[in-house]
Amino acid sequence: MDSDIDLAMRREAIGWLVRLRDAEDADWLHFEQWLAQNPGHAAAYREIEDLDIDIGPLLDRVDFHGAANDDALAGRPGLIRRRWLVGGGALAAMVLAALAIVPQFLHDRYEVRSGNGETRIVLLEGGTRVTLNGNSRIILDRKDPRFAELTSGEALFEVRHDARRPFRVLVGRRVVEDAGTVFNLAYEGSSLRLAVAEGKVIYAPGAGQTELEAGEGLETSADGTTVVIGAVRKESVGGWRQGELTYQGEPLSTVAADLSRLLGVAVRVDPAIAARPYFGTIVLRRGDATQLQALMAALDVEAVSDGNGITMKPHGDGIP
Amino acid sequence: MESSGLLEAFLALRAALHRYLSLQGASPDEAEDILQEAGVKLAEKSLSSIENPRAYLYRMVHNLFVLHRRTASRRTRRDEAWAGVHSGDPPEMDETPSAEAGLIAREQLAILQSAISALPERTRTIFRRFRLEGVPQRQIAAELGISLSAVEKHLAKAYEAIAVRGRKIDGAAWSARHLMSKEGRHGQ
Known about the structure:
The complex is a heterodimer.
Chain A (H helix, E strand, L loop, with lengths): L3 H18 L3 H13 L1 H21 L29 H10 L10 E5 L6 E5 L3 E5 L4 E5 L5 E13 L8 E4 L2 E15 L2 E13 L6 E4 L2 E5 L6 E5 L12 E8 H12 L3 E3 L7 E7 L8 H7 L3 E5 L2 E5 L7
Parallel strand pairs in A: 5-6, 13-16
Antiparallel strand pairs in A: 1-4, 2-3, 3-5, 4-5, 5-7, 6-7, 7-8, 8-9, 8-10, 10-11, 12-14, 15-16
Chain B lengths: L2 H21 L4 H17 L8 H24 L21 H20 L3 H12 L4 H8 L3 H22 L1 H13 L5
Helix pairs in contact in B: 1-2, 1-3, 2-3, 4-7, 5-7, 6-7, 7-8
């Protein structure tokens, strides 16, 4: 099976293919480091290099001038992001329909917030335990212990399943429903990340719903129209509670958001490298921002501090 | 740097180049063969001055490695399609009759054409300058008055589109090939 890791690697491999053609000494050293980082990298590079060589003889027969052929395949390559596309507009419409199930007794709602770099644990009736990561906000309901709304940040949900009363989390305009479950939800800049450690979770319950098993995760685009499913390491879900963050090719923008919550300082990332995938596990002491500088070397970025946190930037001019 | 300088650089970097080849998946014997070959070629060449000797040597060794790898795999996977149409098959089943091969090539061309046609005009132009005409990226950037990293992004987008489209022929074959290559070098 193809995984999001393969696709992230392919994207990196393409970057190297392009860069190495007019490369200088340092580029080859960096390329070698990249190969050494992950045994899959050489295979990913070979894949794209073979493709590049194989199209060679075909290219002088390609018409580079014509406007786009409107064949069924054309025009939507950008939609396929990491793995496979679960749904487009239809799913978004369905998610809106699902909103109707949310109870409307707003005066019973209350908010729980966590400060910078701290975690909070909330126990709910029915055996649910919600652990809130730093700088996160959740709305709960006194009358309905099977409801939560994550308005920002990240939380781990450990839910005792009750088939008659599924636990539902509202995130933006989306609904996530447990089916016997430990799952993690992060909600940042209106894009949602969901990872399932145990049991099963239903995303956008209803007709055409998406069911995720333990070891699967999902990520939506900010507008909710693109949903990408991928594999996650079950053992790493909610690892942030112990200060442990594990990545298998997630973009640096995700790493930055996680670091912000864990360390309690704003960590931003230069758009030029925001999409760069990161592989590895980071272990940090919660709330201790002094670890950032050392960490930046491990992430192969430069940290530029400003009054209000830091920004990860590429090294020097980075690109040849 | 004189030609002997490049040879000296080669000798100094020999261990590093060997390590590089191993990272690329070459066996120790294969790496040794490639380095021998490179040494002979360098001794024959009369190069006046090389600005980036490491880049020059890595590229040279890398190209030799690709040649080795592709020659070896061609023996088992004859007429392999660019999108890996048949690469998932066991070698003994990979007996594509030439008429069919022509058909596949036409199909591939159509797919490649549709991938390239679907690109925005600027991306298409940059990809043509780079891949077909072999213009250095710096020069493309200067011609269009954009940054080098913007050129890189356009090129990455073009390759991404072609790679995605390549899978559309037969996604399973692509995956199978990827798995095979992960397990080690294929084709004996």
